[in-house]
Amino acid sequence: MIKQPYKVWDRQNQSMTQYTPTEVYKMVIDYPGTNRQLEFIGMDRGSCILQAEVAKEESDTVMLTVSEESVTLYNKEKI
Asked: How far apart are CA 67 and CA 65, in angstroms?
């Protein structure tokens, strides 16, 4: 499904705002070795995993995926 941008008219300020949707990927990773849980957002699953690998510390030998989901973000711009 292709998501179309939509426009909103602000009657009080007499201005138009456009909201453009963007699909991103979100992962929550648990690092049991250092007792941390971090959230990563990227354009796809691979970029989230790469971020999680970079965030590993020396004592982290295991990374556990807590959750994965697709999220819609809206880019707001005045027209």
From this structure: 6
Tens digits of per-residue pLDDT, 31-76? Answer: 998 999 999 999 999 999 999 999 999 888 899 999 999 999 999 9
pTM passes above 0.90: no
User: What is the rounded CA–CA span in Å between residue 21 and residue 3?
Assistant: 6
Residue 40 Cα to chain centre, angstroms? 7
Q: In sequence order, what are the residues at sequence separation of 6 or more whose Cβ sits closer than 8 angstroms to the Cβ of residue 29?
A: 37, 38, 39, 40, 52, 55, 63, 64, 65, 66
Name the residue with tokens 């989230």. Answer: 48
Q: Are 60 and 22 in contact (CB under 8 A)?
A: no
14 burial (CB, 10 Å; 0-12 / 13-18 / 19+) is exposed
Q: Which residue shows structure tokens 């590993």?
A: 56
